[in-house]
Design a protein that fits this description.
By secondary structure, the protein is of the alpha/beta class. The protein contains ten helices and seven strands.
Length: 251
């Protein structure tokens, strides 16, 4: 389930045959010239609606922390997101506060329970993924991560996700702990393969902002060469004009 950041990247990924896509908060924010989590709720809702209309495959939304701290706010924002045409969304337990990077356990569970009720009340059938961000925010405690994911599953999450867990044994432990509910694994570096994760019982893989970062590699290489050397050799590696035109010819 790769992560496009705009309509063009979404359409190209769908053409490659991926059965589902997911947005990336980082990739989208960078396209606006902002840091990760720098896009507003209103901008994110508009982005979700645009991408959901642009492709025929299911779209999962990176909905950060629900754009609210309290459960009631999470519920209202999830209700609005569910109306954009997305097939799923994720809510994380990260606060954005370096001093207290994770929501208190009980509050975090209530936030997932509120998101579940909002989706059920919407009648949309949107799939709810609950994310525990400990490994992402500098608290790589596997036991605590599993405790949270198990509680989120009990609170109504359909899928569980702990980004930045990269040891295969740890991934296997998460899969076993929340079974039979599915687990999403983030692959942002070449530490594993689809086949290895499938063998562990992983049901879904996303790449977060990694495809966006990969795209920026070519852009920055060529732009820096022009700016610093006044030469254009990197442009020889560009995708042919006709290939892109053909891909978007029906758009």
């Amino acid at each position: 389930m790769p992560n496009p950041w705009d309509v063009g990247s979404a359409r190209l990924l769908a053409q490659l045959g991926f059965p589902a896509l997911a947005t990336t908060s980082a990739g989208f924010a960078w396209s606006l010239g902002r840091p990760d989590n720098g896009a507003s709720l209103e901008a994110t809702l508009a982005h979700l609606s645009t991408l959901a209309r642009a492709v025929d495959v299911p779209l999962n939304a990176d909905f950060t922390n629900g754009f609210a701290a309290e459960p009631a706010g999470v519920a209202e924002n999830v209700r609005r997101a569910a109306a954009t045409g997305i097939a799923g969304l994720s809510v994380e337990d990260s606060t954005g506060d370096a001093a207290e990077p994770l929501y208190d356990f009980e509050l975090a569970v209530e936030r997932i329970r509120a998101a579940r009720k909002a989706i059920d009340d919407s009648g949309t059938g949107v799939l709810l993924t609950a994310r525990s961000e400990g490994f992402l925010v500098g608290h790589p405690d596997l036991a605590e991560t599993i405790r949270r994911l198990v509680a989120y599953a009990a609170a109504g999450a359909d899928c569980l996700y702990a980004p930045r867990i990269e040891k295969l044994a740890d991934i296997a432990a998460v899969v076993a702990a929340v079974a039979p509910k599915p687990v999403n694994v983030l692959v942002g570096a070449p530490y594993t393969t689809v086949d290895e994760l499938r063998a562990l019982g992983v049901r879904r893989i996303s790449v977060g902002g990694a495809l966006a970062r990969a795209a920026w590699v070519g852009f920055l290489r060529a732009a820096r060469e022009i700016a610093e050397r006044g030469t254009f050799s990197a442009l020889a590696e560009a995708v042919p004009f006709g290939e892109i035109e053909t891909a978007f010819g029906e758009g």
